[in-house]
Amino acid sequence: MTVDGRADGTTSAQRAAVPARPRGRNVRWAVISALTVLTITSYLDRGNLSVAAPVIREDLGFSATQMGLVLSAFVWPYAIMNLPAGWAIDRFGPKVIMTVAAVLWSIAGAATGLARSVASFLGLRVVLGMAEAPLFPGALKATDQWFPDHEKARATSVYIAATQVGLAIAPPITTALLIAVDWELMFVLVGALGLIGVLCWWLAYEKPSRHRRVTREELDYIEQNQSNAPAVAEGAPGVGRQWVRLFRYPTIWAMIIGGFCLQYVFWFYITWLPSYLESAQHFSISAAGLLSALPYLAGGVAVVLGGRFSDMLVRRGMRPMDARRRTIAGGSLLTAIALGATALSTSAAMAVTLLTAGMFTYSLTTASYWALASDVAETSRMVGSIGSIQNFGGFLGGAFAPIATGMIVDRLGGFVPALVVAALLLLVSVVSYGFLVRRRLPV
């Protein structure tokens, strides 16, 4: 390894000389488009329950703590299943696994409209969480295969921005369906949309070397500008042993802790933002549904900006791993400040503005969060596993956020302590990514 941490021996000056993009057809962006559609449909299924939660609580008589349990039920199995999902993606490839998973989560989302008890809601959300676990490890693997270093964060930002789009359109769509029909039929209709994403993914994706529409020029552009060594063929043995060895590295544990803190905050937004606007800021359900879209719209813009900023640092000669982790640390610090200010806000308009600013700065981190998983290893063989392990830690935080927030609201009488906890966790993320994630993994 060279002094700048690069395994392939290239210098900063060489890395800065980014080659021209191939002309004509660029199949890699069609793959990203398919991932984007798949991501939007999955996030509609994730986000619709939080908007419908007040109506469901009134209709079925659930307490805030019970609703917190239901809201967190998706995240626990999602977090746990990230571990085998990443291994499976590295072992067998993303195409079939992600297709089966998307069909299953669409069915589970639609069936939520039939639930009537806490137990039935819990069961269906568990299935939804398990089924959606392969989505981002698979997307990361596909992006790592199809993109050179200086485009990875930008490409990742497109389908990560789709998560914000899904969350942004979920409140108004769900609110409109709640008013037009009922919450039961709303779940059925939203779940059925997932089949569109499945079709797009199945038709668009194949490995670059096997894709019938990729040109030699585009394939050379991809392969000659990747810093991690190419992976062995999908299905090759040995992935399981290397997966276990990943946990020996301090970098992996720092990514797990940092991811925990980041996703705790994201799931605070996803699961409790409409309720916060209704109960703490006294907006109506229709106003809360519309205002809940603002942070995600801002976040969608910030995801793309954050990805471009990170790739710009790479083009200017910064080691890809450093560009990613510094972007994450900076965005986390700004978000901690925004949430702390929200806890001290004195008006509803100020609270909405600060929460929107907080999601904007948070979202600057998300493309780099995923791109880091591909840049931290010296070979692409275990990219899916590294991404899923980081996301396992992240969704442990996401699993704690809904129920912890519900308990804080019930026992401490409001959302101010919950905002303070979220801000403090973001400072832990700053330390993890800013100071502890420093060495590439010789996987």
UniProtKB/TrEMBL annotation:
It is a multi-pass membrane protein. Keywords: Cell membrane, Membrane, Transmembrane, Transmembrane helix. GO terms for cellular component: plasma membrane. Its main location: membrane. It is found in: Cell membrane. The chain crosses the membrane at residues 64-84, 96-115, 158-179, 185-204, 251-270, 282-306, 327-344, 350-372, 392-409, 415-437. This is MFS transporter. The lineage of its organism: Bacteria, Bacillati, Actinomycetota, Actinomycetes, Pseudonocardiales.
